[in-house]
Design goal:
Length: 118
Protein backbone atom coordinates (compact mmCIF):
# COMPACT_ATOMS: atom_id res chain seq x y z
CA UNK A 1 0.00 0.00 0.00
CA UNK A 2 1.45 3.36 -1.05
CA UNK A 3 1.36 6.13 1.52
CA UNK A 4 0.16 9.54 0.44
CA UNK A 5 0.62 12.91 2.14
CA UNK A 6 -2.41 12.33 4.38
CA UNK A 7 -1.59 8.72 5.22
CA UNK A 8 0.58 7.66 8.12
CA UNK A 9 1.35 4.16 6.87
CA UNK A 10 4.94 3.21 6.16
CA UNK A 11 6.11 4.35 2.73
CA UNK A 12 8.14 1.98 0.56
CA UNK A 13 11.86 1.74 1.29
CA UNK A 14 12.70 3.35 -2.08
CA UNK A 15 10.66 6.42 -1.16
CA UNK A 16 12.37 6.73 2.21
CA UNK A 17 15.78 6.37 0.55
CA UNK A 18 14.94 9.08 -1.99
CA UNK A 19 13.65 11.42 0.73
CA UNK A 20 16.76 10.82 2.84
CA UNK A 21 18.97 11.60 -0.14
CA UNK A 22 17.12 14.87 -0.79
CA UNK A 23 17.28 15.85 2.90
CA UNK A 24 20.96 14.90 2.92
CA UNK A 25 21.66 17.29 0.07
CA UNK A 26 19.73 20.04 1.81
CA UNK A 27 21.60 19.43 5.08
CA UNK A 28 24.37 21.66 3.75
CA UNK A 29 23.68 25.31 4.67
CA UNK A 30 25.20 26.42 1.36
CA UNK A 31 22.99 24.13 -0.73
CA UNK A 32 19.94 25.04 1.32
CA UNK A 33 20.71 28.73 0.74
CA UNK A 34 21.08 28.08 -3.01
CA UNK A 35 17.68 26.36 -3.18
CA UNK A 36 16.16 29.15 -1.06
CA UNK A 37 17.63 31.76 -3.40
CA UNK A 38 16.47 29.96 -6.54
CA UNK A 39 12.98 29.72 -5.04
CA UNK A 40 12.91 33.52 -5.29
CA UNK A 41 13.87 33.43 -9.00
CA UNK A 42 16.35 32.05 -11.48
CA UNK A 43 19.98 33.05 -11.48
CA UNK A 44 23.34 32.31 -13.03
CA UNK A 45 26.21 30.93 -10.96
CA UNK A 46 27.81 34.36 -10.52
CA UNK A 47 24.61 35.86 -9.13
CA UNK A 48 24.14 32.87 -6.83
CA UNK A 49 27.72 33.10 -5.54
CA UNK A 50 27.21 36.79 -4.73
CA UNK A 51 23.87 36.19 -3.04
CA UNK A 52 24.90 33.20 -0.90
CA UNK A 53 28.37 34.55 -0.19
CA UNK A 54 30.22 31.56 -1.61
CA UNK A 55 33.18 31.16 -3.89
CA UNK A 56 32.24 30.57 -7.52
CA UNK A 57 33.82 27.07 -7.75
CA UNK A 58 32.12 25.94 -4.53
CA UNK A 59 28.70 27.21 -5.63
CA UNK A 60 29.21 25.52 -8.99
CA UNK A 61 29.95 22.20 -7.25
CA UNK A 62 26.87 22.54 -5.06
CA UNK A 63 24.76 23.25 -8.16
CA UNK A 64 26.12 20.13 -9.84
CA UNK A 65 25.02 17.98 -6.89
CA UNK A 66 21.61 19.63 -6.75
CA UNK A 67 21.18 19.14 -10.50
CA UNK A 68 22.10 15.46 -10.31
CA UNK A 69 19.41 15.01 -7.67
CA UNK A 70 16.84 16.84 -9.81
CA UNK A 71 16.33 19.58 -7.23
CA UNK A 72 17.77 22.22 -9.57
CA UNK A 73 17.67 22.49 -13.35
CA UNK A 74 19.38 24.78 -15.82
CA UNK A 75 19.11 26.15 -19.31
CA UNK A 76 21.54 27.96 -21.55
CA UNK A 77 21.01 31.64 -22.33
CA UNK A 78 23.72 32.64 -24.75
CA UNK A 79 27.02 31.99 -23.00
CA UNK A 80 25.63 31.69 -19.51
CA UNK A 81 23.88 28.89 -17.70
CA UNK A 82 20.72 29.95 -15.84
CA UNK A 83 19.63 27.85 -12.86
CA UNK A 84 16.12 27.41 -11.51
CA UNK A 85 14.22 25.16 -9.13
CA UNK A 86 13.69 21.70 -10.57
CA UNK A 87 11.25 20.43 -7.96
CA UNK A 88 8.66 22.85 -6.63
CA UNK A 89 7.60 20.40 -3.92
CA UNK A 90 11.08 20.61 -2.40
CA UNK A 91 10.79 24.40 -2.40
CA UNK A 92 7.53 24.07 -0.46
CA UNK A 93 9.28 21.96 2.18
CA UNK A 94 12.27 24.34 2.35
CA UNK A 95 10.04 27.41 2.69
CA UNK A 96 7.98 25.73 5.40
CA UNK A 97 11.00 24.63 7.44
CA UNK A 98 12.99 27.86 7.12
CA UNK A 99 9.88 29.95 7.71
CA UNK A 100 9.00 28.03 10.88
CA UNK A 101 12.54 28.35 12.22
CA UNK A 102 12.67 32.06 11.38
CA UNK A 103 9.38 32.60 13.22
CA UNK A 104 10.69 30.75 16.27
CA UNK A 105 13.91 32.75 16.24
CA UNK A 106 11.95 36.01 16.07
CA UNK A 107 9.74 35.02 19.03
CA UNK A 108 12.45 33.62 21.31
CA UNK A 109 14.96 35.82 23.09
CA UNK A 110 18.30 35.73 21.38
CA UNK A 111 20.79 33.50 23.19
CA UNK A 112 24.29 33.22 21.94
CA UNK A 113 27.09 31.03 23.19
CA UNK A 114 29.05 34.04 24.36
CA UNK A 115 26.04 35.21 26.42
CA UNK A 116 26.11 31.98 28.43
CA UNK A 117 29.55 32.85 29.78
CA UNK A 118 29.01 36.56 30.44
Amino acid sequence: MAAGAGDFGDPPAEVLAEAAAAFGLLASPARLHIVWTLAQGESDVTGLAERVGGALPAVSQHLTKLKLAGLVRSRREGRRQVYFVGDTDVVTVVRLMVGQLADRAAQAPSRRIRDLFA
